[in-house]
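Project outcomes to date are best conveyed with an example. Our students and postdoctoral researchers have been running inverse folding experiments weekly, and each run begins with a structure described purely in tokens. The record below, which covers 95 residues, was selected by the lab manager from last quarter's runs and is presented without edits.
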């Protein structure tokens, strides 16, 4: 991956600890998550043909720009891009 992601990253021992981290910080509704990885985020962005900094939306109340990187991390669905069959699904999810 040639592009450095801007988001803070956290080191955890395993997926269980990642879920605990999300719970402690209020980043999840309580359902199990697929922890986002830098590799997974990069794969999702490549499949969607987007750069991490690309703006995919504007939050209407505070007018904050929403980047493709943050959207990918929020969705935590980066693993669906592993298969070439799912590349169009990744592209369509961000459009």
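After processing, the design step wrote out the following sequence:
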């Amino acid at each position: 991956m040639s592009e450095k992601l801007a988001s803070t990253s956290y080191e955890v021992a395993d997926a269980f600890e990642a879920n605990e981290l999300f719970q402690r910080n209020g980043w999840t509704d309580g359902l199990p998550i697929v922890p986002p990885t830098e590799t997974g985020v990069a794969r999702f962005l490549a499949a969607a043909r987007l750069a991490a900094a690309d703006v995919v939306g504007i939050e209407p109340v505070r007018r904050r720009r929403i980047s493709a990187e943050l959207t990918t991390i929020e969705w935590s669905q980066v693993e669906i891009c592993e298969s070439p069959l799912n590349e169009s699904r990744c592209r369509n999810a961000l459009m």
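Residues 37-93 form one domain. Helices lie at 15-24, 38-48, 68-75, 87-93. The training component of this project remains on track.
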